Amino acid sequence: QKEVEQNSGPLSVPEGAIASLNCTYSDRGSQSFFWYRQYSGKSPELIMFIYSNGDKEDGRFTAQLNKASQYVSLLIRDSQPSDSATYLCARGGGADGLTFGKGTHLIIQP
Amino acid sequence: DGGITQSPKYLFRKEGQNVTLSCEQNLNHDAMYWYRQDPGQGLRLIYYSQIVNDFQKGDIAEGYSVSREKKESFPLTVTSAQKNPTAFYLCASSMRASGREQFFGPGTRLTVL
Question: Is pLDDT at A109 greater than 70 in this prediction?
Fold first, then answer.
């Protein structure tokens, strides 16, 4: 099973704080990882991807990949109420495209 | 504008009917996908296609059928054999199948009456 695991939440974070979302995966052969944001009733929107060990920053978002420990994280700095959404982690590497986790529901409290 | 379109946005089906969901992309992507999402659940892969005139079953293909006659189009038919079709259906595409980021259409919400 090439699974991707996420804590479903909800994860509640005060406005202005750092939100930390985590994801683990079972397939050591996975090469690429993606974070999608999904607002209620809408389709997923790609916000970050990471291929190499370490950190990748894009604005308020930082993706972290640790292949030895098989986890991927997404940090959201200066959290805003508009960041409240479900965040889906996905891994790539297979011919059938991406394997998605079930998502973490994030709530930013004003 | 480049993107992925799905129609209709909402669809109601009577039991025993087949319905077809449309997905079109103008991103020149080779690979296209259909997912199903149930409330509080992740995305489950129904079918995918890496190239025109070829497609493969995903994890939950039973009761569904697809075609890929054109690069831009990947319609999904929900047949009467699908016992619990009420769900949010998402179409996605990527430059190629293996490991690349996917971009999603706006989705079709199907309800069986």
Answer: yes
